[in-house]
Amino acid sequence: MNVSANKITPVILCGGKGTRLWPRSRAAKPKPFLPLVRDETLFEQALLRCADAAHFHAPIIVTGAQHVGLVESQLTVAPEAELIVEPMAKNTAAAIALAAMRLPQDSIMLVCPSDHHIGDFQAFINAVKAAAELANDGWLVAFGIEPRGPEIGFGYLRKGEAIGKLGFKVAQFVEKPDFARAQAYLESGEYAWNGGIFAFGVRHYLAELERYRPEMVDSLRQAIDCGSEEGRHFYPGAASFANIVSESVDYALMENTVRAAMIPAEMAWSDVGNWRDLHGARDRDEFGNAIRGPAEIVDCRNVLVESDGPTVHLIGLNDVIVVIDGNDVMITSANGAHKVGTLRAATTQ
Asked: FRET pair for 246, CA 20 to 30 Å: which of 108, 188, 324, 333?
């Protein structure tokens, strides 16, 4: 791949089981491939954010065999994309390294999940430019999302000393806190949400990964060496890839390296992690209601309705979510939305 150093290569991580937004999202077609916030799917939105040839090269998409067809069907905005098809899921550290090993050593990667929503495009571009500058200087850069509340569903980054005018060292990675700690983090002003978006220099990423996970790097190189290409698809060698221990980039690298940095990013970001998050990302009426599909609502506030056919009639309800998909009906309070993924139906369909 011929890549110049003055532009950024998006690395789009694409997959998922589809349980937390059941019944709309399912294993056969999880949330990246659904038009949940706008007319485009979340995957298409991720591609469109990185479509400006003035800033970005064609993307590399890392996905599993079960999702190749869905990826291909939604690549109209990125026809030059390369696909790396993982033989099995081994989490983000290995997925990012696969892309890195397909790029020149002086490349800058922008690692993006394919299932997030970003409402402020210009703020995203500004953060990308700042992160790329730090990455070019050898920092491993996380996007620190400015917290909007005491969220217990995200990991946090604690800001360390400033790095010029661009960003900060990461003083600490913090796992998902309880509510009291999340509130304390918010009040301190020292913490940001870990949004799972990163900028890495290829050479620096692979060197640090080899420092802390040499066995992973060895297996990945073997998988690359015995891989095969079919058109735009690259298939790593399955036997070598199977030897890799599955770890996130946070555990394998970012919590260990002394080169971890962060760029503060306030860009109307949402991981669309459950139906309550999706409600917050959608346009709402003056009463906080977000309706898709046929519905009649009377005296309701902060209600989300999603129906692919039957008309939903609601009266006098607050903070309720109703989703109808085919023969499945799911009703939850907003506070119960994070438990949807525990439903037996969500994990078997």
From this structure: 108
